[in-house]
User: Which sequence fits this backbone?
């Protein structure tokens, strides 16, 4: 009898979450028709780094399918922030096409966001002489491109990159976007600062999680100050890097608490480190379909711990491409 009751309780909880997913929600300064958000996944729909009509059509079709907010992947905040030469960065030419994309999404009564990203050391972009990183790091990805080691960032590098994030946020606001997502996960630059495996600094930006998170949080603060009254300013953050001695769940919880103090509008929790554990979220014996159908996973439990410690909107995985705001609202 207790087994049946437990199953009934689980089913009731799932129905409540499903019903809530279709209700409107306010995300910072913007209103969404429902809680379905298309998370950023690399589309590859660019020509020499410029968005194509295929990219516009792709995001319009996602909105037509009922998603409230769609996210364009990887908008490099500078030419140095690209992982490869023909990747998109936010210059006048790409922004002109992104304006067409935002107009097309709005014509379908949807909202659109874009990731703001810098690759850090993870680059094979031959336009670079040496990629930037928190510390001098071996870059296996760039060895064949002559980019075997990164340069440890100095104060002028830190200030320039922060300014690049702010200017990019202001530029996409002018291009009609409704939100930006600051990418602090997956082993890109801000993730490299957060991870003790790649941040070996001895100054105020290295060592403790308080220090390792200082630069990413400074960037969030600056972007929020610049556009947060008009755009939702979101963060993609790792739950865990997926390897020993990397960014951990306890680190994640600390960063989430600090983001809450900064009035962060939402956090998309993810995991993995591109140069080390790119398939972290697919690990284990249960395929993704089974994970979704069979109840709480390791990742679900970790997300729940974060939810219990903050009042921020948490975006949780519900399918390969769609995340749903179901908590803390």
Assistant:
């Amino acid at each position: 009898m207790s087994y049946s009751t437990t199953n009934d309780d689980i089913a009731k909880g799932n129905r409540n979450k499903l019903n809530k997913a279709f209700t409107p929600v306010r995300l910072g300064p913007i209103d969404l028709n429902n809680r379905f958000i298309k998370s950023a996944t690399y589309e590859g729909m660019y020509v020499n780094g410029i968005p194509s009509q295929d990219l516009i059509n792709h995001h319009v079709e996602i909105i037509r399918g009922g998603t409230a907010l769609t996210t364009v992947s990887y908008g490099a905040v500078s030419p140095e922030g690209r992982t490869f030469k023909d990747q998109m960065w936010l210059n006048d030419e790409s922004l002109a096409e992104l304006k067409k994309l935002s107009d097309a999404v709005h014509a379908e009564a949807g909202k659109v966001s874009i990731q703001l990203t810098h690759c850090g050391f993870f680059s094979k972009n031959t336009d670079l002489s040496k990629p930037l990183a928190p510390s001098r790091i071996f870059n296996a990805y760039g060895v064949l491109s002559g980019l075997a080691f990164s340069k440890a960032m100095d104060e002028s590098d830190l200030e320039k990159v922060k300014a690049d994030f702010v200017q990019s946020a202001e530029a996409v606001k002018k291009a009609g976007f409704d939100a930006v997502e600051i990418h602090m996960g997956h082993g890109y630059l801000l993730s490299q600062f957060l991870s003790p495996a790649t941040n070996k600094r001895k100054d105020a930006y290295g060592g403790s999680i308080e220090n390792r998170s200082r630069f990413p949080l400074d960037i969030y603060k600056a972007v929020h100050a610049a556009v947060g009254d008009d755009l939702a300013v979101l963060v993609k953050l790792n739950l865990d890097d997926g390897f020993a001695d990397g960014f951990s769940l306890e680190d994640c919880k600390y960063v989430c608490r600090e983001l809450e103090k900064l009035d962060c509008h939402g956090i998309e929790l993810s995991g993995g480190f591109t140069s080390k554990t790119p398939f972290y979220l697919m690990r284990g014996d249960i395929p993704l379909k089974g994970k979704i159908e069979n109840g709480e996973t390791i990742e679900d439990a970790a997300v729940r711990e974060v939810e219990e410690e903050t009042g921020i909107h948490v975006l949780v995985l519900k399918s390969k491409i769609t995340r749903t705001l179901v908590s803390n609202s």
